[in-house]
Write a structure and sequence with these properties.
Length: 192
């Protein structure tokens, strides 16, 4: 008589995936940070209504970046702000200034272009290799890490937070929202 293969329960699958993440994915993350000489990064995230997004990965402290108005001036966008005149989005000079602003902003958040470096690796628990940028890898890892820690920051009311990696230490601060409702029903009867 042939033995039937016992199907993995939901809890067994979760336990297996968590063990793989803890034993393989977390050490792999730290290995990639060392290989690419990443000593610092920060990324913010927010979600709700069954979706969420990660902002850009900053490889410098935000306090070390020029303020937005300084970057706008450097890009030449300040002259459009000061004139209070309508701007045509099709104006080539305006488009050049916008592109320069975006390029400068990206440069200041990642001056050594670490986030653009490509990784080619085999994710833990998968059979296929993956090619991605270091910034996208970081965002994917943080999303998986929060799932591993059972932090639901994007469903229903959602939440937001910030990730800081500094000198080999990863810290995540998350605030999640939950709606609570109580139902009350009252009636009064005239007994007179």
């Amino acid at each position: 008589m042939a033995e039937t293969k016992k199907e993995e329960t939901w809890q067994e699958r979760v336990d297996r995936e968590n063990k793989i993440f803890k034993d393989e994915s977390i050490p792999e993350f730290h290995k990639f940070m060392k290989e690419h000489k990443v000593r610092y990064f920060t990324v913010e995230f927010s979600g709700g209504g069954d979706s969420g997004d990660f902002e850009s990965v900053y490889f410098v402290k935000k306090d070390d970046m020029p303020k937005n108005d300084v970057i706008r001036k450097e890009a030449g966008l300040d002259k459009y702000d000061q004139n209070n005149t309508s701007v045509s989005w099709d104006d080539p000079k305006y488009q050049m200034a916008r592109n320069k602003f975006e390029a400068l902003d990206e440069y200041y958040m990642d001056p050594f272009r670490k986030g653009r470096k490509y990784l080619y690796y085999k994710p833990a628990g998968h059979s296929d290799y993956k090619s991605t940028t270091l910034s996208e890898y970081i965002k994917d890892f943080i999303g998986e890490y929060m799932s591993y820690k059972c932090i639901d920051w994007y469903n229903n009311e959602g939440g937001y937070g910030e990730v800081v990696y500094k000198d080999g230490k990863l810290e995540i601060e998350v605030e999640t929202y939950y709606r609570e409702s109580d139902t009350h029903k009252f009636s009064e009867v005239d007994n007179g």
